[in-house]
Sequence to fold (375 residues):
Amino acid sequence: MSMALCVSVLIASEFMPVSLLTPIADELGVSEGQAGQAISISGLFAVITSLSIGGLARRVDRKLVQSSFAALLIVSTLIVAFAPTYPVLMVGRALLGIAIGGFWSMSTAIVMRLLPAEQVPQGLAALNAGNAIAATISAPLGTWLGDIIGWRGAFALIVPFAVLALVWQQIHMPSLPPRGIRRTNPLGLLLHPQVALGMASIFLLFMGQFALFTYLRPYLEGVAGFSVPLLSAGFLVLGLAGLAGTWMISRLLRTRLYSVLIAIPAVMAGLAVLMIAFAQSAGGAGLLIVLWGFFGTAAPVGWGTWLARSLGPEVEAGGGLQVATIQLAIMGGAATGGLLFDALGWQFTFALSAMLLGGSAICASVAWFHQRSGQ
Fold:
């Protein structure tokens, strides 16, 4: 539970700029596309950290490693909250990326050590529940607080929860010396076709998701005509739908793993197309973002279950590779989406999202057929 709380704070910190993109851009004197790169920079440093932390910390107690990343989360959030300029903001976001990459890359392996094998899916679902709760709270709360106390105040309020997560982890997590961990090169796992196909699907899924999600506020405000109170309500319902989707879809993973992994990006691709078609309808856009939250928030628990089932003793290296893939995808989605948003308009950003998500569904389908033929 202490890990789930830390996950909640990490996710809230990572994606808080989504709901505060416009005021951040206005105050720091940059475009909304440039402000969106605050998510890209955290993704870049998460990629670097997730691929290297296994080797750098191979002799260090995993409890100490995770606690160090929780402490870094506190520092990075304070830097962002008090950043006087755009470059300083980006430094804080880079430090956040290090905390995200390190914490997430080891999380699946730690859950596998804390719980018996039959309870690992529930443990991963608990972590993803922290993800879903953060998605539920951070966006509407960020929008509301940003309107009341400014975007800096919204970031500052994350700090007490980060401190609580660190203290709770120090008290309750047992010592986890790195015994029995195989020193596998994460990138070497891509030589296995099943792993390569899975990572390709993960990459396209998250790149497509965040090419659109990063710029959801400008779309809802500027195109669909949402007011700030309606925007807060929309993000809240999106997050609640994500909680419901995580609970419902996680129950299907024992018997329908690949069906879920294929269906989620396929449905989300259709939703991205419909967002373009119903852009002028506030009601239509609202319904579509609720469905987006229902399916999109559940995606990580599906791929976390796939990782635990597929890699066994190499799960820590696989966790690093998966986190690197996801963060590289988030970075690429936010960056490419921002460039298209500024240069050609939101329609091209959303169309890119739909194409990437469709590609994810295709890769997951090929991985499923490969897995069946391998049996």
Notes: The two ends are 36 Å apart (CA to CA). Residues 2-374 form a domain with the Growth Hormone; Chain: A; fold (CATH 1.20.1250.20). The mean pLDDT is 82. The CA atoms of residues 210 and 333 lie 5 Å apart.
